[in-house]
Design brief:
Layout (H helix, E strand, L loop, with lengths): L1 H14 L7 H7 L4 H13 L3 E4 L4 E4 L2 H12 L1 H17 L2 E7 L4 E7 L21 H7 L4 H7 L15 H14 L2 E4 L6 E9 L5 E10 L5 H21 L5
Antiparallel strand pairs: 1-2, 3-4, 3-7, 5-6, 6-7
Helix pairs in contact: 1-3, 2-3, 5-9
Length: 248
């Protein structure tokens, strides 16, 4: 079991990194000695979970994960149910629409619909969602209990832009507002020049299983537009939730 936990620890490093890590970085961040880290990394490469970039000598996630992403998409009813609503929302607002799935531990962008527009914001499928700075993540946090928040948030919140909330007390105030209003706003907190609106999705047991959001450049997705779009995104999330058996 220990080797499995260590392997997962190493793989998790790549979810929070820029995509590539050296052996020294892997060992240091995983708090392992270099020989142990190297042995596990070589096994993960052999299984296709990691690959080595020969030119730079760094490591990145392997193609094997694409098989798992495909399997999740193929067998997850939420994506089938949500598809037509996401497409409808994208056509209505002409902005990028994405859906993240939440398993109680991680939120992953699992479906993205792009508009026919020359200036769009990308949301790569398979990407991890940041909880404290992305609209999708904050929408999910808005449904957490105090105990869950404590478990999922560290005292050190990474800053990504000037607007990123890095004070834990300020973030908790923001989450309280999300709880009251039922919507999370990313006001250029994840990326400069990008805004987002997200609402959580619940199943028949009233458990949060994900969130849906709209992303757009701030020059187009103005604060006035956000106020206009909030009820539309809420309606989309509610339709998906109801089709999952949620009774409001």
């Amino acid at each position: 079991m220990k080797i499995i936990k260590k392997s997962v620890t190493i793989l998790d490093l790549f979810l929070a990194s820029e995509g590539e890590l050296s052996m020294e970085e892997i060992a240091k961040r995983a708090s392992m000695n270099k020989s142990t880290a190297r042995r596990i990394v070589l096994s993960l490469i052999e299984c296709g979970f990691l690959k080595r970039q020969k030119r730079r000598g760094k490591y990145s996630l392997g193609m094997k994960f694409l098989d798992y992403i495909y399997a999740v998409k193929k067998h997850n009813p939420i994506l089938d149910i949500a598809e037509r609503y996401l497409v409808e929302l994208s056509e209505t607002l002409s902005e990028t629409i994405s859906l993240a799935l939440w398993d109680g531990r991680d939120a992953v962008i699992s479906r993205t619909i792009y508009p026919h527009h020359p200036l769009i914001v990308s949301a790569n499928e398979g990407s991890m969602v940041g909880l404290h700075f992305a609209s999708l993540g904050k929408a999910i946090m808005g449904e957490m209990t105090e105990e869950e928040l404590t478990r999922h948030l560290s005292n050190k919140l990474t800053r990504y832009t000037h607007n990123t909330i890095t004070d834990i007390n300020d973030l908790k105030k923001n989450i309280m507002m999300i709880k009251q209003e039922g919507v999370a706003i990313d006001d250029e907190e994840a990326f400069q020049g990008v805004r987002g609106i997200a609402v959580a999705i619940k199943n028949n047991e009233r458990i949060v299983v994900g969130a849906v959001n709209i992303l757009g450049p701030s020059v187009r997705l103005t604060r006035e537009k956000i106020r206009e779009y909030v009820p539309i995104v809420k309606e989309c999330a509610l339709k998906i939730s109801r089709d999952l058996g949620f009774n409001d």
